[in-house]
Amino acid sequence: MIRREDAERGELSAGRSLGGRPGRAGRALGDDPAAGFGALVDQVGAELASADPAAVITTIAGGMTVDTYLPTRTFELVVHGLDICAAADLPTTFTPASLNETCALAGRIAARAGRGPPRRTTGAEAESHAPLT
Description:
By secondary structure, the protein is mainly alpha-helical. The protein is 56% helix and 6% strand. The chain has 2 domains: 50 residues, no CATH class; 64 residues, no CATH class.
């Protein structure tokens, strides 16, 4: 189980259990999960409107600024939303802004992991790379 105090100290290891957190989160939505989720969206939207983008918040991955943390949450919502809609055979609808943010984060992750396109330069070094197709 991931304990809050461990998360706040950054003492998490890959393979640690989610400790029932998803089930508790689902139950917290109540008898009408769609309405419960909608209420959370309204609450979070209001809080974000006044949030300082440079404020540091504690996450399961350690401290992050609000403006760094939010794209990771958008990414999770879009990716898992796509999975859920595919599994339930439902259409997906995301705003262009959320898709742009998700694709940008995925591209940054791929580039940092060495899975992006080769680095392009000018001159002789650029000529040594195969063209992108």
